[in-house]
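Residues determine shape. We examine one folded chain.
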Amino acid sequence: MDNNESQIYDVMSLTSLEKLEPVRVRPGMYIGSTGSKGLHHCIWEILDNAIDEITNGYGKKAVIILNRDKSVTISDDGRGIPTGMHPVKKKSGVEMVYTELHTGGKFDNKNYKTSGGLHGVGAAVVNALSEWLEVEVKQGGKIYKQRFEYAFDKALNKYMPGTPVTKLDIVGKTDETGSKVTFKPDKEIFNSIDFKFDIIDERLQEIAFQNKGMYLELIDNRGDEPVIKTYHSERGLLDFIDYLNESKTVLHKEPIIFEGEKEINGIYLSAEVCIQFTDSTTEYIASYVNNIPTTEAGTHETGFKTGMTRAFKEWGKKLNLTKDKEKEFEGDDLREGMTAIIKIKLSNPIFEGQTKTKLGNNEAHTMMNELVYLRASEWIEDNKDLATILINNAIQASLRKEKIKKLNEAEKKKVGKGTAPLAGKIAVCTLKDSAFTEFIIVEGDSAGGSAKQARDRRFQTIMPSKGKIMNTEKQKMENVIGSEELKIFTSAIGTGVLANYREEDLKYNKIIIMSDADVDGYHIRTLWMTYIYRYMRQLILDGHLYIALPPLYKVYKAGKNGEVVKYAYSDDELSSTKKEVGKGALIQRYKGLGEMNADQLWETTLNPATRTLQKVTIEDASKAEKMVSLLMGDVVEPRKNYMYKYAQF
């Protein structure tokens, strides 16, 4: 390469992003994604600041209002964002908080003992990702207001996010205090700016359960009539555990509940724990740090598990239940069927990742381990009969686990490296690179036959599902592991289940459930999702599970150059598709996948270039847990109530 062709790399080559520009360039770094999760994360960032005020003793109520213009308003009756001028920066506190990435009242512990807000990052991030944002502060007898927009910055001579378009003006008088923030997410950033009532509803319910006595309100003004819902809990975590276990059969009516506080290395920690055992085959732990759900767990959760296991193992020996070597059990055996809520508050949380889903403080592990060990030991001493039942259940779970492990190993040996045992049942793809391959479960033999013909055999494996698999929520673990169809699926996927699950053995990048768009199809889909949620939850957490959305209608007509064909995936889409095809359009309503020939199935549902797939996520773990138990569990009454309420579904 000669000198003319070489690239000159000097200071002029460096890209300098100013003020809030980095947030718009890499939104995922700050809010996780630009999908539904990231959109709602913007609400949580502002709401967390309001909750911090209330939990630290300033104010009693926070309100969220969903507005017709797709903006959202979050208000509280706390002290209000500081409105005074900064002596050095010559800016108001409001402008600093909403335009600078590291400004806030949470860097020391003078203003907040504990906080869930993004330590001065959250408010500015939301501003950066909004078309516009307005702040109103009630403080010192006055009402202050300032507006920010994605607008032209004269000083920088370019359009900038979060630009102040007004000063912090005094617009009125008041006897009240508090902050009100209204923002409209930027449609250039997010895939959709439609806030989901259900997601916000669930989060507010959780916050109310965690903060007994707090008042929260959600107002949806987007319909013809406003929808107003209030949230308040007097019993806190006891109400929360009742809510989570509503559709489960509990083994003891009174939950185990305790709390404690401690200071370690200059960090203040307080914790509250609530535990109840059920006859379920899986554990469920809901953990929170400073009101924020830690969906990826962390040190507080591992400390809880260590302390719990230690206490029950010691008492197993004291009660002469685990003297024999074969009767020893592990923590996951003890936690089978356990629902637990772990709530910790600490003054200096260290999170792994910007969106705070995993706690990293060693102090949290130390505190939870000691607290849970001490209080669980005290509880066992006072409840020896019930503790004996729980320890015996753990011993049985351990024996079952060994049995399942042997079954799994036997299946793996059978399958080996070839696919002979799957022959005739599964049409396996030729490509072995799991980064590109897809495993598609197809409802029914006829659709399965068409799918086998239609697929791209290089990367698509087809498994026809004969009718409905068992409802794994109601079955004993041995029956589930022994089910022929589930055995074939699990062997083909390669990961194993429950404690034996190994992500590195996964043979496919996408697991796709393909069922008819009718009641039976929904049921089949739900049965498969229940199995995967209970036995291979990591598949969902790692983003491997999808639902195929086949079209409901074929809209077609004869044209000069052959037939014009378009597909509509919903009743809403049908009229626009008819207009697209034009006058004389004919409509074919698909009753099921079996009605499509191989070409149509490829074009509409299998071809990555033209199909529609919906990724299955655990947007809110406690809601997913509750829904699986509600729809698939043994307790009938809550399910009946749900069906009456949502009869259309």
Q: What stands out?
A: The longest strand covers residues 142-153. The first helix runs from residue 21 to 25. Confidence is low (pLDDT under 50) at residues 1-16, 105-110, 417-421.
